[in-house]
Design goal:
Helices cover 47% and strands 13% of the residues. The strands form 3 sheets. A 7-stranded mixed β-sheet has the order 9-8-10-11-12-13-14, sandwiched between helices. α1 packs across α2, α2 packs antiparallel against α3 and α10 packs across α11. The structure holds nicotinamide-adenine-dinucleotide. The site of nicotinamide-adenine-dinucleotide has 16 residues, from loops.
């Protein structure tokens, strides 16, 4: 991170002094700088002359005394409080009294570092994201001791470097990691409990929630040891058991399986890629779609695209391969499904689509529970189908449902019949956490959205997501998750319920 940050500063036209512990580490740092800027030249993003100028602005040294003239020092030593405190004590001794000292810590308390220095008013956090030259977000952290001028100077500097500063208080995980790691840990818990497989959870979050990568791919990229450290730090502050690192994550770290950097973590990165078998050529199924709302329309549109014949209740359901209850209303849906169960031939699969009504309840009410599965589309654009069997579902029925959904052109994942299936069960608690942050006045909507888009590469921020997906839907799914798990943090936060009651969007 140190080399990346030095590169960002030098690219911004600033003179930089880079300090390392010893000559070997210094040469490694020089290598990072040369390689990264060399890559930029190769890609045509930097001229050879500009590269020379950038490298010329960075003086490398192992002598802390060389920092004597600096206006700002950014510390990026390993994430250990005692080491950071030691480094700051040295900086206190060599730096000018008016110099601002910043830490790039991801998870330690900036205040814990500040209180042991002789200049707590001049200590800030500047949290760059990896890789620093690429990622646009920098979280600027003020403690209760930091003077406003120090924060303003650092935020202005970050803007001058072409990055977006988000200024916030000193809470574990700041904005981005606090929101991200609750979700990552929940995904690990889902895998551990057998709710769904690693691949299905990763596929669900990319195909169904539009994320650039799934949670297990991302954790392997970040490094599982870092994930564990960040979660421990967040949990130490929140005492929220959702932040207690998943035992599976800890076990992988203990075993030295740290993700990409060691070749194996949740994935074995050395294993040859297994190509998914091409789907067998089969005729499009005949599908019954029950209901008249937006969800029913979405299903009918999916069937049309796949060339499947669509029947509704009035057109007769006898020859349907799949009958989808998509009324969007629990009571009406139950009646429609019971009627369809009488009309359908043996062998037809009956599917209920609600992410909030327990699938087993709807299945029992149908009178043909062995033929019923949950089939949820987390996004009505219709790329992903989540299929869930209940304990009453007959053998092979979920396989048949998956095969039929595949013939409709949907990407299919499987999970247990639990509220929210995979995508909604993972994304709405994350959105609830973002709303909690907003409700607590920790960060404004723009900062929260910038943290996730610019810091984590999410296509949209959580506050925008809440308005896009619907806060009424968020509240309904959270209530279902809370009813099922009784997990206090899954109850919708007051800000959300208030907005639903008032009928106004969050922004
Ligand atoms: N890696 C990330 O994705 C990432 C992202 C944001 C923030 N951070 C934070 O940045 C900091 C550094 O992380 P990293 O991943 O670059 O770690 P790293 O272990 O890759 O690099 C740390 C560097 O600090 C040097 N160092 C150790 N003791 C030193 C000392 N006393 N004086 C000067 N240099 C010393 C080491 O030689 C090493 O080159 C941590 O606080 C981490 O939480 C990391």
């Amino acid at each position: 991170m140190g080399a990346g940050i030095a590169e960002v500063l030098a690219r911004g036209g600033l003179a930089v002094v880079g300090i390392e512990v010893n000559q070997d580490a210094l040469e490694r740092g020089r290598g990072h700088l040369e390689k990264s800027t060399g890559r930029a030249v190769k890609r045509g993003r930097l001229t050879e002359d500009a590269r020379r100028e950038i490298l010329g602005r960075v003086a490398l040294s192992t002598d802390f005394a060389d920092l004597g003239d600096c206006d700002l020092v950014i510390e990026a030593v390993p994430e250990r409080l005692e080491l950071k405190r030691k480094v700051f004590a040295t900086l206190d001794g060599v730096c000018r009294a008016d110099a601002v000292l910043a830490t790039n810590t991801s998870s330690l308390s900036v205040t814990d570092i500040a209180v042991t220095t002789k200049r707590p008013t001049k200590i800030v956090g500047v949290h760059f994201f990896n890789p620093a030259p690429v990622m646009k977000l920098v979280e600027v952290i003020r403690t209760v001791l930091t003077e406003p001028e120090a924060v303003d100077r650092v935020a202005a500097l970050v803007t001058g470097l072409g990055k977006t500063p988000v200024t916030i208080g000193d809470r574990a995980g700041f904005v981005a990691n606090r929101l991200l790691f609750g979700y990552l840990n929940q995904a690990a818990g889902m895998l551990e409990s057998g709710h769904a497989t690693r691949d299905d959870i990763d596929t669900a979050m990319t195909a169904g929630a539009g994320l650039p990568m799934g949670p297990f791919t991302l954790m392997d990229l970040i490094g599982l040891d870092t994930c564990l450290e960040v979660l421990e730090a967040i949990h130490a502050e929140t005492r929220d058991r959702r932040h207690a690192p998943s035992p599976l994550l800890r076990e992988l770290v203990t075993a030295g399986l740290l993700g990409r950097k060691t070749g194996r973590g949740f994935y074995d990165h050395g294993a040859p890629k297994v190509e998914a078998p091409a789907p067998a050529d089969a005729p499009a199924p005949v599908v019954g779609v029950l209901g008249t709302g937006a969800l029913a329309d979405a299903f009918a549109a999916i069937c049309d695209r796949a060339g499947a014949q669509v029947r509704d209740a009035t057109a007769g359901l006898a020859d349907c391969d799949l009958i989808v209850e998509a009324s969007g209303d629990a009571d009406a849906g139950r009646e429609l499904l019971a009627a369809a169960a009488q009309a359908a031939e043996p062998g037809a699969v009956l599917a209920v689509t609600s992410a909030t009504v327990p699938v087993a309840e709807a299945a029992m009410a149908s009178g043909r529970p062995a033929d019923v599965v949950g089939l949820h589309l987390p996004d009505t654009e219709g790329a992903l189908a989540e299929i869930a069997a209940t304990v009453a579902t007959g053998p092979g029925v979920a396989d048949r449902a998956a095969e039929l959904a595949g013939r409709l052109g949907l990407t299919v994942v499987r999970c247990r019949a639990r509220a929210g299936f995979i995508v909604d069960a993972l994304r709405f608690p994350y959105l609830n956490d973002a709303a909690a942050m907003l409700g607590a006045g920790y960060a404004d909507p723009d900062s929260i959205d910038a943290a996730m888009t610019l810091g984590c590469g999410y296509p949209t921020g959580p506050i925008a997501d809440l308005d896009r997906l619907g806060i009424d839907r968020a509240v309904a799914v959270l209530r279902a998750l809370h009813a099922e798990t009784r997990e206090p943090a899954l109850a919708p936060v007051p800000l959300l319920t208030e907005h639903v009651t008032a009928g106004v969007p969050i922004r």
